[in-house]
Amino acid sequence: EEELSRSSHSNPGKNLVNGIKTNPASSSPKSSLPVPIGPPVYVDLAYIPNHCSGKNTDPEFFKRVRASYYVVSGNDAANGEPSRAVLDALLEGKSQWGENLQVTLIPTHDTEVTREWYQQTHEKQQELNIMVLASSSTVVMQDESFPACKIEF
Fold first, then answer.
1. Rounded to an integer, what distance in angstroms lies between the CA atom of residue 43 and that of residue 79?
2. Can you give the pTM of this predicted structure?
3. Organism's domain of life (predicted)?
4. What is the pLDDT of residues 34-67, one digit of tens each?
5. In a designed cystine with 26, which of 11, 31, 77, 152 is the match (CB 3.0 to 4.6 A)?
6. CA nearest neighbour of 112 among 86, 148, 83
């Protein structure tokens, strides 16, 4: 116990995944110790962790982190970013809220995964009061151009 106490003081982030203590014998956060039950956290804006990869985000994230705006920044299909499972987890998590608060999903890239998800779940999104922002804006700076999404509060 003393050794555990000393190691946590010398490296406070050790064995933490998204701020939650994990089992040091396990390399996967999915097999970590159970997270204590607590009240949900309400925030204005939340970035979906790990570029919307299914490695760290599941329905429990959306049940606990309740945001008015979620940013989806994934643009790497080879690594499953964004993950269809995570987008579906948003629907599942939001359906458990018990209140119909407006949620806006802000994808920072136009991907095949987000387009298909949007089209296939549009009715469920409307039912859950989820709006998906589509942006075709482009920022041009010197010799570089890139897509942009404007967020207003």
1. 28
2. 0.66
3. Eukaryota
4. 666 789 999 999 998 876 777 778 889 999 999 9
5. 31
6. 83
Alpha carbon distance 83, 98 (integer Å): 25
Chain length of the chain = 153
The amino acid at residue 17 is V
Question: 78: helix, coil or strand?
Answer: helix
Contact 82, 116 (CB under 8 A): no
Q: Which of 60, 49, 52 is nearest to 18 (CA)?
A: 49
Residue 62 vs residues 86, 95, 97, 110: alpha-carbon distances, Å: 9, 10, 9, 22
d(CA 40, CA 66): 7
Question: Would you give the DSSP letter of residue 30?
Answer: G
Joined tokens for residue 3: 């050794």
Are the C-beta atoms of 45 and 69 separated by less than 8 Å? yes
The percent of residues above 70 in pLDDT, for the chain, comes to: 65
